[in-house]
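User: Could you write out the 3D structure of this protein bound to beta-D-glucopyranose? I've included everything you need below.
Assistant: Certainly. Input first, then the structure.
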Amino acid sequence: MARFASVMLLTTASLANFAVQAIAVEPRSFGKTKDGKAAKLYTVKNKNGMIAKFTDRGATLVELHVPDKNGKLADVVLGFDDVSGYESEGNQYFGCTAGRVANRIAKGKFSVGGKEYSVAVNNEPNALHGGVKRSFDKVMWNAMPFAKRGGSGIQFRYVSPDGEEGYPGTLKVEVIYTLDDSNSLTISYHATTDQATPVNLTHHSYFNLSGAGTDTVLDHVLTLNCKSYTPTDDTLIPSGKIAPVRGTELDFTKAEVIGKRIKSLIETAALGYDHNFVIDQEKPASGLTTAATVYDPTSGRVMTVMTTEPGIQFYSGNFLFGQKGKGGKEYKKRSALCLETQHYPDSVNQPSFPSTILKPGDKYTHKCVYRFSNK
Ligand code: BGC
């Protein structure tokens, strides 16, 4: 109660001091988890009417209302109406923070400092997105709303104990979501550890720029600032090679309709696009490189993804199965896409990939911006 009181004070003070407009941070109940914890829903707005809602379960983005070319808002991310939906079979990492190691680890095995570790195999025969019971998408995070001149948002914190889901070291993690008046949602990650451990965090929203629940994203137009990718075996584990996209269905260096060349990929293990692309580094002063742009010709919405990370997983929602989400809407196969900025899959077992090992005394940092505009 005390914390919420001070948050409201902070919001009021910000409004008075900085004349921040149309920003509200009002936590409300999001239901109870199966083990009786009270989940909350936090709302953030910007002066253009954009609204983002988050829950502390999984440091998850629940709703994101974005204007189209006529200024009409639509919620462009998949999700559920309360926390019980997020605990159901229908939840395929919707909007969550994935970790401690997002993406795959071959056979759930790796070694750090000469010691071997085994983590749960939950995506036969590999480990996916950090584990089974206490992966970062499933735990409750401490949430602290803020409102300031540069934007408003939520700071989420979680301390992952040594040995949780089989990973070494106590990891202190912070994920800060900021919505600003340039219609950007920025996600900043920070982590420290007391023992060497692999860390690879990502954001797992499923986007449909025509609005969540619209039938397909195969009509969206994608550009990737990526001339190469990491080829994989049938279980989506990289071979360790970096291969050019030129002449393949993965060449999005020029804007291309997503569905145009997907047919041959539907017959592969990935059932469509589910690939890690190597981002062509621009090294701008901000440290952020534009990795991807998605354009929806129907609504005119454009989403630009910028990041400090070396890779981006483009997943075309191939395993969505018609589960019912927010407002009873059905989420059909390939009706939403993920663009997950991260290190490459199975980096912990691939010495030639940029390292995901965080050591005591070092700081993990990662920034990802989803910026919305129209054309
Ligand atoms: C992976 C997919 C997986 C999905 C789970 C994505 O990040 O690349 O293979 O099915 O997450 O929802």
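The first strand starts at residue 28 and ends at 32.
User: Perfect, thank you.
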